[in-house]
Amino acid sequence: MSDEESNVNTELFKNIERLRQLRIEHRDLDDVISRLSMDFNVDEIQMKRLKKRKLLLKDQITRLESKLIPDLNA
Questions:
Q1: Coil, strand or helix at 70
Q2: How far apart are the C-alpha atoms of 50 and 12, rounded to whole Å?
Q3: Residues 47, 36: contact at Cβ < 8 Å?
Q4: Is the pLDDT of residue 74 over 60?
Q5: 39: three-class secondary structure by DSSP
């Protein structure tokens, strides 16, 4: 295996691992938001921050997924 192939494989592995981490964090945030939404005394600012973070994670996941999926038109 050439150095270039090794670098590509290493980069692919890093991206897949990053995607896995982002999905876990997104799922965990979803759980936290669900639990907090049941609390009538929830801090609305905290809830908005959590939801914003969750949206940012979703955007990162989408970008990374599109980077990992080969372009079918190529």
A1: coil
A2: 29
A3: yes
A4: no
A5: coil
Q: How do the domains of the chain map onto residue ranges?
A: 3-66
Count of Cβ atoms closer than 10 Å to residue 44 Cβ: 7
pTM of the model: 0.81
Structure tokens at 11: 């980069």
Rounded distance between C-alpha atoms, residue 56 and residue 41, angstroms: 25
Count the neighbouring beta carbons within 10 Å of the beta carbon of residue 67.
Answer: 10
Q: Is 33 exposed, middle or buried (0-12, 13-18, 19+ CB in 10 A)?
A: middle
Which residues, including other chains, have CB under 8 Å from residue 16's CB and lie 6 or more apart?
68
- For 25-66, write each residue's pLDDT tens digit: 999 999 999 999 999 899 999 999 999 999 999 999 999 999
